[in-house]
């Protein structure tokens, strides 16, 4: 139960006070209390730099991309493709051609299931996934498996909330056509050893899809190092605007796949009889992209790079290390997932006996603290944990130890209200 | 103290009235609020007179959803099914006596939704029955 | 060739000078000349009111929608659902439940093809569409028809660019499973009599999909009056942000359809074995919606309502009436589509003999005028017209007669450069 | 006068050199720029000596794309295929002698792209051949 001190020392590398000045929303108050934003796993707040990058497009050179030969369109197109290059660098993609802008991780994961899965998954194939998956990573494969008659294998966690690697390995050794795995659990904050698991899956000949919605914002994600075939994440969870998201895939696979959405821009030629597709990545970007949002995501990625993604990870682990001991010391508190800080990000799911998470979230809100209560789009995990909902506090680069203290104090106060 | 969690509500939450399954119920219905996992099952015993002779509920969830179910059971004993079908949400919110934000209103109204479905004699939401039967 | 004076008189109802003050980008210069934005059919500019509505969310109460019980989430959710209600009112939808937020018209049209089409279109069925379709309305059905072995029937236009209603009627009388028709051609600016055509299609028992990407921004679109089953349009073409779009469908159909994208929010319950779907409209909104963009679209719709969509339509027709005579009087100029203003919106596609549209767009850009050159995602129409590209000027509420004059002057100048 | 449309470019556009199909060409290739519909077909006649004895092109499109094709045919006569494969885009842009924005650079380079494909002996873009054969 002891929290390892491992990362605490390095938290000083983040100048949180300065960072907070970049986030206009953090100076708001809620019910008369200063806002404490502990719901970044749901969506992060945005720095001025991101909002400014978007403002510049809308107010200074807004034009549809790719299709115009005039000045505004050229400028906007250049900014859009710069954002793509920034994202490619951020995840160490071999080429920006492999970076496809989508609305969010959900669309990215569905794109893979539709455009790769429908043409490749067959009756009797095995789809291996985990009980930690978010619905967006789980349900597309559950449905496709049902449609084609494939087998869905759901690997369990141990009592600490960590993936059962023994079971995973054994299942992959039995053979698999698809591995769909989350890099980081949005319910428990544990990091899966995806590089290792992807290695096993590759040996089984599986195509591997990693859900990086909770990892890309908070820790280094290197697609070449992981070795997977596809990865997806959402811009809005990593300081970018809503409406921006990314699916990355290996060019060799993307080239062989059918398109997903059909329409403007993804086409090279259309006759009444047939259509030919545009080159990567545009083949998968039908219609007018949310180009301003993508440009915002580019600015977000540059902001994260400047602060340093490793420093951010260390900072968040330090926050967890600060939070866990007093929280665990409270009577009636259960923390789901590991109680140490090994392979962990800043997500802490907990329950207080006698107070439903919904009531807890309401009571914390009265103290200005925004946390999430519910199943976190993690029904199978909730069932596995034997609960219907948890209260989840999640951190980011702008959070402080003082805010962790405020959370513990507010939990105590909530217990008083309930006479506990 | 937070006015949302008044004495009365916490009392109904901690000591729910008419709690438990009801043997021989003539009507019962189960529903959930998927957002938070709140669950309510309502059991009605309608006698020869056409009135609700007994009502029980079981459930789990937040204080608002469980207290409102408990309050609701008190309100309807002795009523006819038609009277139950006519209860509006304002009545439930009045019984609670607090102002709720939209998300929490859903918690408060789960019990009424479940009760009405029971009163109408449903066993599953329209459309779901077919789905369940097909499995 | 005479331009009808019909709408000219009523143009005065728009206070364009005041309207222009709402659009920050319109005061920019390009190559030292004041910007003349004549590419609104590609994407419109945005008024302050829309940008401000979005800023307020990001800076004052940003939070993920639907899933939070705390204050910020409640406020953002309320603003998002208000936007949905505003859109429903704008298109006279029977209920906001039928209004689904998507990225753009393209996604909306693909949603229908995937979620309705795949389960309903069968070998031998007839899909009736037109040569006026944008690729986003055409290619999803072309591909699906090929996949299932359905027949694709493409109705022609007459030499004026108007839909061949005789042919359309005859084809529908032969029977049809689907009618996919654009309300307004983005290539020629003609309005199709969709109400009439939808009526014929309904009699044939067809499901009817109307592409309103070019109509919803510029004229009254009333889904109940048209009587179609689905309609789709893009926010970014109607003063809203990119990343916002709408597909409307009849509840009875939407309820019977399978979902399109799977993931968070569109679900009511997930177990390892099965999933149950959320109610409309959320069943079709998987993952984190671009809620800020949707809120921006809500503000755009309110702006359009305040100015008055009928007044906007009249104003644009008046601009066309002002532009056509001097343009047609120029030696070597061909205007595609009707030369009068009957059933028309503010799209004027033209060609100048001896100057390729690409060169024309570049030369106009040097004069500060942004027009589009290319096939406008209208390959089949270009083939029909016997050209590979056109130059397209398109108007909106913020354009003026002086800008039409500037366009004609710049066309003359371009001819001089080319020695014509 | 706009410096993008210099005398020289307009001259090559209006009076393209080496225009027309080439009977007995040993290499030829057709390509388009889907954005604007520009089209170029390059025809090469490579003699015993391994040098380009004759080159023609046909096409339609904007002044930039057609002038650059015309200029390119002048540049390569008498060269070997290997020399042609080594021509870089800077050379083409230099021949044009103007500064182009990214969208227009594509127009300028269509001729080079087509020429190189012809020199490599392609008849369709890799991947497309199979697609076309399958029809
Ligand atoms: C008639 C028509 N339909 C569909 C579209 C596609 O719109 P979007 O690119 O916003 O999806 C357009 C826009 O170019 C259009 O003009
Ligand atoms: C692990 C994980 N995957 C996928 C998603 C889906 O992200 P979005 O809603 O942005 O599509 C989330 C966000 O909740 C997540 O936490």
Question: Concise description?
Answer:
Chain A is an alpha/beta fold and about 425 residues long. Chain A has helices at about 15-20, 50-60, 70-90, 105-120, 135-150, 165-175, 195-205, 225, 250-255, 290-305, 310-330, 355-365, 380-385, 400-415; strands at about 30, 35, 35, 100, 125-130, 150-155, 180, 205-210, 230-235, 245-250, 265-270, 275, 335, 345-350, 370, 370-375, 390-395.
Textual characterization of the structure:
The complex is a heterotetramer, with two copies of chain A (420 residues) and two copies of chain B (135 residues). Chain A is of the alpha/beta class. Chain A has 14 helices and 17 strands. Chain A has helices at residues 16-21, 48-61, 71-90, 105-120, 135-148, 165-173, 194-203, 223-226, 251-256, 291-307, 309-329, 357-365, 379-385, 401-417; strands at 29-30, 33-34, 36-37, 99-102, 126-130, 151-155, 178-182, 207-211, 230-234, 245-249, 267-270, 275-277, 333-336, 347-352, 369-370, 372-374, 390-394. In chain A, a hairpin with a 4-residue loop joins strand 11 (267-270) and strand 12 (275-277). The longest helix of chain A is centred in the C-terminal third of the chain and has 21 residues, at 309-329. Chain B is of the alpha+beta class. Chain B is globular and about 40 Å long.
């Amino acid at each position: 139960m002891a929290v390892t001190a491992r990362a605490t020392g390095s938290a000083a590398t983040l100048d949180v006070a300065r960072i907070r000045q970049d986030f206009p929303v953090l100076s708001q108050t809620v019910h008369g209390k200063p806002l404490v934003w502990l719901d970044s796993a749901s969506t992060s707040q945005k720095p001025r730099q991101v909002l400014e990058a978007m403002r510049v497009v809308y107010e200074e050179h807004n034009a549809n991309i790719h299709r115009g030969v005039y000045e505004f369109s050229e400028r906007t197109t250049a900014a859009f493709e710069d954002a793509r290059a920034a994202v490619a660098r951020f995840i160490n993609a071999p080429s920006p051609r492999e970076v496809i802008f989508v609305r969010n991780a959900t669309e990215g994961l569905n794109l893979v299931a539709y455009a790769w899965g429908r043409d490749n998954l067959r009756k009797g194939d095995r789809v291996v996934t985990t009980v930690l998956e978010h619905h967006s990573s789980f349900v597309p494969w559950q449905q496709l498996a049902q449609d084609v008659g494939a087998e869905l294998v759901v690997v369990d966690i141990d009592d600490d909330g960590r993936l059962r690697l023994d079971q995973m390995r054994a299942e992959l050794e039995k053979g698999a056509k698809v591995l769909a795995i989350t890099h980081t659990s949005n319910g428990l904050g544990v990091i899966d050893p995806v590089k290792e698991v992807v290695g096993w899956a590759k040996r089984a000949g599986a195509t591997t899809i990693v859900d990086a919605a909770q990892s890309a914002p908070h820790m280094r994600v290197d697609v070449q190092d992981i070795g997977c075939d596809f990865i997806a994440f959402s811009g809005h969870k990593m300081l970018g605007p809503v409406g921006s998201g990314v699916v990355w895939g290996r060019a060799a696979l993307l080239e062989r796949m059918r398109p997903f959405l059909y329409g403007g821009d993804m086409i090279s030629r259309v006759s009444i009889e047939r259509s030919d597709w545009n080159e990567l990545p545009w083949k998968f970007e039908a219609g007018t992209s949310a180009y301003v949002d993508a440009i915002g995501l580019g600015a977000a990625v540059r902001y994260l790079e400047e602060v340093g993604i490793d420093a951010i990870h260390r900072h968040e682990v330090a926050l967890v290390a600060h939070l866990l001991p007093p929280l665990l010391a409270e009577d009636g508190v259960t923390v789901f997932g590991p109680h140490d800080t090994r392979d962990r990000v800043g997500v802490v799911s907990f329950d207080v006996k006698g107070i439903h998470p919904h009531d807890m979230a309401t009571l914390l809100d009265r103290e200005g603290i925004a946390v999430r209560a519910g199943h976190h789009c993690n029904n199978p995990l909730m069932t596995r944990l034997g609960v219907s909902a948890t209260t989840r506090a999640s951190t980011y680069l702008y959070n402080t130890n003082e805010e962790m203290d405020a959370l513990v104090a507010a939990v105590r106060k909530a217990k008083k209200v309930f006479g506990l | 103290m937070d006015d949302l969690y008044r004495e009365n509500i916490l009392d109904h939450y901690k000591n729910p009235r008419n709690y438990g399954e009801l043997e021989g119920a003539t009507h019962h219905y189960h529903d959930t609020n998927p957002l938070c996992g709140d669950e309510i099952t309502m059991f009605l015993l309608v006698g020869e007179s056409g009135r609700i002779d007994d009502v029980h509920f079981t459930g789990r969830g937040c204080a608002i959803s469980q207290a409102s179910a408990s309050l609701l059971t008190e309100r309807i004993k002795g009523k006819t099914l038609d009277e139950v079908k006519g209860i509006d949400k304002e009545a439930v919110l009045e019984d609670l006596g607090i102002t709720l934000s939209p998300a929490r209103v859903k918690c408060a109204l789960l019990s009424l939704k479940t009760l009405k479905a029971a009163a109408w004699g449903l066993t599953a939401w329209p459309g779901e029955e077919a789905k369940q039967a097909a499995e």
